[in-house]
Amino acid sequence: MATFLYKLGRLAFRRRHFVALIWVALLTLAGVGAASAPPAGTTSFSIPGTEAQKAFDLLEQRFPGQSADGATARVVFKAPSGEKMTDAGNKATVEKTVDELADGSEVASVADPYTGKAVSKDGTIAYASVRYDVSGMELEESTKHALEDAAEQARESGLTVEVGGDALQAVPETGATEIIGIAVAAVVLVITFGSLVAAGLPLLTALIGVGIGVSSITALASALELGSTTSILAMMIGLAVGIDYALFIVSRYRAELAEGREREDAAGRAVGTAGSAVVFAGLTVVIALVGLAVVNIPMLTKMGIAAAGTVAIAVLIALTMIPALLGYAGRRVKPAGAKGGLLGRRRGGEKTEPKKDAGPAKANLGTRWASFVVRRPLAVLLLGVIGLGAAAIPASDLELGLPDDGSQPTSTTQRRAYDLLSDGFGPGFNGPLVVVVDAKGSDAPKDAFTQVSDEIKGLDGVVAVTPPAPNKGGDTATISVIPDSKPSSVQTEDLVHAIRDAGGDIKADTGAETLVTGSTAMNIDVSEKLNDALLPYLVLVVGLAFLLLIVVFRSILVPLKAALGFLLSVMAALGAVVAVFQWGWLSGLMGVEETGPVMSMMPIFMVGVVFGLAMDYEVFLVTRMREAYVHGEKPGQAVVTGFKHGARVVTAAAVIMMAVFAGFIGSSESMVKMIGFGLAIAVFFDAFVVRMALVPAVLALLGKKAWWLPKWLDRALPNVDVEGEGLRTADERGSDPDEDRELVRT
Q1: Residue 464 vs residues 78, 476, 517: alpha-carbon distances, Å
Q2: Are the CB atoms for 266 and 253 separated by under 8 Å?
Q3: For the purposes of burial, counting CB atoms within 10 Å of the CB of 715, is it exposed (0-12), middle (13-18) or buried (19 or more)?
Q4: Coil, helix or strand for 513?
Q5: Which of 363, 418, 517 is nearest to 165 (CA)?
Q6: What is the pLDDT, as a whole number, of residue 356?
Q7: How confident is the model at residue 744 (pLDDT cuts 50, 70, 90)?
Q8: H-helix or E-strand containing 434?
């Protein structure tokens, strides 16, 4: 592989006009596609194999025309102090608002609070339910404005009016912190390279790659039903890996220049060595993201595939556009450690000779740290494991759920409506359960409906049960159940399971099947499905990546150590997420206005993404160590040499990735905020504790055993030559650069 990538790098360097034209054309094509694509329509949130989804599908079949997936809104009214909503003036304002809402072209129905018994017991709060024909993402702006205008006019009469539901659902915003993250990345690159030109290359290529990826997602959003969160996550991951991959190749290019190589040859060798690590690092990320499909949640699968596509683009750009841009940059990109013309070649082409009286070069920080770890490996290993274990302790209290209006910032009208409904009707009113009774196989459907209703009324934790509402055929009915606990609570989850357990006995007696659905039940089913899928997903992703790393490192223990280190870092990161978003530690600093359960998708999504990113640093750092070991150094010295060449760059890459992820903490979408924080803290733990401390400590303890591989497996595995041994062999035998050029041309 190193030889092929070497030729590819030289070809891209020499044919830079053609390579640049291709990528600019792809960016233009994707941009035009995104600009001309129809706006994204509804984003289906189906959960195949769950009872909630089965009941939802049954509702669409047995209750046609009721727009089961249509947007909803609850316009909540609160009377001024000392007044009631039943007062004549307030009642007139509400009825006028209801009439205005009913005139909307996309409105399916509006329920009057006074005829629908939607007034609180103390008479201070009332609400009008609005149902639309289309989903929240498909609502026209004029319909949303009409809803907001109706609420504003009602406020002018002195009432407190807030609007809940998904009718006012907005595209999440990431905020200015995303730009700050990119700015931090730029500063780190300038410090790392000491040159604006060299620092600008990774940023430029990363932005081009993300531009192509996100524009493609936007162009396909309507056809593939991709949500707005999909493009945000693709941007988050694409920016991080795009900058990192380019950073490693540019750094290796400067190192090759420092050894006195011609620029074209240096570009080829940078792509052949660091580029090989980029390919395998990118493969681990792609495997982890595409592997999300095993969960069998279409939305999560689409998010994973879209992000994986952006990562693949980042790899291709790093392998082709970086050497092309290095060709354009010419002498403006200096050799590693060069200041002006002191290293590399001067303007006239002569090589600068080092001063004869110069003493031994001072060891850099990476070398000094690695030397310390090699001398004290056991102490460093124990300290790192204990520290990560302590950070992981909060994960034992992990509670999962999906965000609702109760997790919105208190500044939003949705959150204020949620709080008003909780005050007036109880916390469970914001998450009613919809019980669907399928009596098609029953001899007495009406008796079955009544039996289900009576059974639910006798359960603990139930505040109210509406009478059964049968369909036209009389074979199916819906019953609305109001719990006495909030939607995301454990008590509500227990109630859902209690209703389902009672349904089993009812089916045996009457032949009618009882199903529980609604947004609350759907959230509970999603959490359980994700929990059940976590272990198979871990086995699949870690297993495939383990096999891939065996091929890369030609070792059994190094990939095993990499996987165990990843588990430590991801558990510590989950502990940090629980501490901030569930317990409320530093919540004000992170902009978390409401603590609660961790998003159900968070553990499995973090496992997928963090594993891929963790393997990035493993591949980049350890391939340098293996390269030194293969070239004859002792195991301990190889660890030090790997840090000498790779620690600075890996540190810069980790800081950049943390800055990019942390930039999304400012998002208005709670899911994006949580993922941004989780990934940023996970990169910190993995890069600075696992890869920078535990990895050299374990390798120092293992010695030569770290690179052991059974002979039969060594013969069976393909030789991918990530270390570039083939390139060094060609160099040692004195291959002519002109011959290499001929090989590239052919």
Answers
A1: 22, 20, 17
A2: yes
A3: exposed
A4: strand
A5: 418
A6: 45
A7: very low
A8: strand 433-438
Whole-number Å distance between alpha carbons of 314 and 286 = 11
Residue 280, both tokens: 């395998």
**With contact defined as beta carbons under 8 Å apart, do 719 and 403 qualify?**
no
Spatial CA neighbour of 274 closest among 246, 296, 232: 246
Question: The tokens of 624 are what?
Answer: 């340098």
Q: How much is the pLDDT for 348?
A: 39
Q: What are phi and psi of 165, to 5 degrees?
A: 95, 180
Q: How many CB atoms lie within 10 A of CB 498?
A: 17
Give the total residue count for the chain.
746
Percentage of residues of the chain with pLDDT beyond 90: 19
Contact 110, 174 (CB under 8 A): no
Helix then strand count (H, E) for the chain reads 25, 11
Query: 402: Cβ–Cβ under 8 A, 6 or more apart, which residues?
Result: 522, 523, 526, 527, 599, 600
DSSP state, residue 160: E
Question: For residue 206, is pLDDT > 70?
Answer: yes
DSSP per-residue codes, 443-473? S-HHHHHHHHHHHHHTSTTEEEEPPPEE-TT
pLDDT tens for residues 313-370? 999 999 999 999 999 988 888 887 665 433 334 433 434 444 444 445 566 777 888 8
Read off the pLDDT band of 743 (50, 70, 90): very low
Closest CA to 107 of 139, 137, 75: 139
Mean pLDDT of the chain: 82
Q: What one-letter code names the amino acid at 189?
A: L
Amino acid letter, residue 42 = T
Question: What is the structure's pLDDT at 361?
Answer: 54
CA dihedral sign of residues 455, 460, 465, 471: negative
Contact (CB, 8 A) for 243 and 203:
yes
- Strands 598-599, 400-401: pairing kind: parallel
Q: Which residue has the higher pLDDT, 497 or 165?
A: 497
- 463 close to 483: Cβ distance less than 8 angstroms: yes
Tokens 């009457």 identify what position? 510
pLDDT tens column, 260-297: 889 999 899 889 888 888 888 888 888 888 888 888 88
CB of 50 within 8 A of CB of 525?
A: yes
pLDDT at 200 over 70: yes
Buried b (16+ CB within 10 A) or exposed e, 271-292: bbbbbbbbbbbbbbbbbbbbbb
SS3 (DSSP) at 481: strand
Which of 528, 611, 626 has the alpha carbon at shortest distance from 562? 611
pLDDT for the residue 84:
92
Element of type H or E holding 514: strand 513-517
- For residues 199 and 185, the answer to whether their CB atoms sit within 8 Å is no
Fill in the DSSP letter of residue 345: B
Q: Classify 483 as helix, strand or coil.
A: strand
What are the tokens at 178?
């995303």
Tracing tokens 């030569």 back to the chain, one arrives at 704
CA distances from 49 to 56, 127, 295, 500 (A): 12, 35, 11, 15
Query: Which of 239-243, 495-499, 742-746 ranks highest by mean pLDDT?
Result: 495-499
